[in-house]
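Course assignment 3, question 2. Fill in each field.
Student: A.L.
Task: Predict the tertiary structure for the chain below.
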Amino acid sequence: MATSPSLLELLELRGFRRLLATRLLSQLSDGIFQAALAAYVVFSPERQPTPTAIASAFAVLLLPFSVVGPFAGVLLDRWRRRQVLVNGNLLRLVFCLGTAALVAAHAPTGAFFVAALAVTGVNRFVLSGLSAALPHVVSENLLIAANSLAPTAGTLAATLGGGGAFLVRLALPAGAWSNALLVCLAGLGYACAALAASTLGKDSLGPDRAHLDEAAGTSVRSAVVDTARGLLDGLRHLLHDCRPAARALGAVAVCRFCYGLLLVVLLMLCRNSFVAPSDQAGGIRWLGTALAASAGGYFSAAALTPWAGRRLTVPGWLTTCCALGAVLTAALGLFFTPWPTMAAAYFLGLLTQGAKISTDTAVQSGVDDAYRGRVFALYDVLFNGALVAAAALCALVLPVSGRSVPVVLTAAALYAATALAYGATRPWRAARATPDAAPTTP
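Answer field:
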């Protein structure tokens, strides 16, 4: 997070305040929409949730980041970013209203997922636009502080939005109309985000006129092909010239895969094991508690990782996160009872985010600047794809009760194998030879 003087300086900037308000409203609405999606897929009384349905929900939430994400910049460099924020949020309002109508009408599950995919697909452009616009509203000396504050505040807003939506859902009667109302609330939040973005100047967020003219001279098809080639160049550079960063990316992908396995286990436990399957409110309360615990772990990681990185080195802390993941998964995950599971949610949130922050730092400090953007695009694909792959595996092997000793032990074994494999390369020796980069926030 930013220090107090930097925070005060940032909040004195009108453009930054308005861009931050747009982010907070947008990500608050993301949290509401994600809670509505969970309520529909997992806690609808007329539906019997399965690991397959949950895997489909993960695909809806994350595949736009993997498939659309790397190519979003092609269009963001051709459109005024202020208009991306305004029109993107208005478009999500329209899609939310359509999704709510499908939920209220008990439309087929496939139609609902297509509509939800449209909402999350636009989200990729909005989040990328928010990041690309930031240098236009703060000076260079405040950019690090702004990059620390804005994403962390956005994550907190999404967490509050999701938690608030679960509380609203508990106060409403069970049924399709209650889920539809949550989707409409998300749409209202997107409308407010569009209104906040409209207070910014039309050309205040870029791209600069010179970049717009340059982009206009290149076809979208050519730009997409060039982007795909650039991603391949980034992959070759990563594998041949930046092996420490490549190993860190491999380690965090396995951690994310394990987290995905355990997250699906958690969802099924909350729905079918911690309470009677007919007790929708009880299941929602347990899931809300687990998500709050996991969010607490994420924010604890933001505070703990800089300290741990200085003492253990960044690669050493990444290795420690993997090793602790193995121990805690085996120690807490096999009870299949509520409170050990809540404790596991907290610690795995902390360790997963600690591993991610460490990997962010390894990539930032170990990859040439000319390739860094492309490597981070690959990172997004790998990070989100690992969670979808984990959910797909659970769809094949996890019982609807969520009680699966083999799945939990598989996650623990993968954590342990990653700690051994990554630690065996002794990456911290190289890390001590160069100054540590400052870890990023969630």
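Instructor remarks: Residues 433-442 have pLDDT under 50 and may be disordered. The chain has two domains: 1-217, 242-442.
Grade: pending
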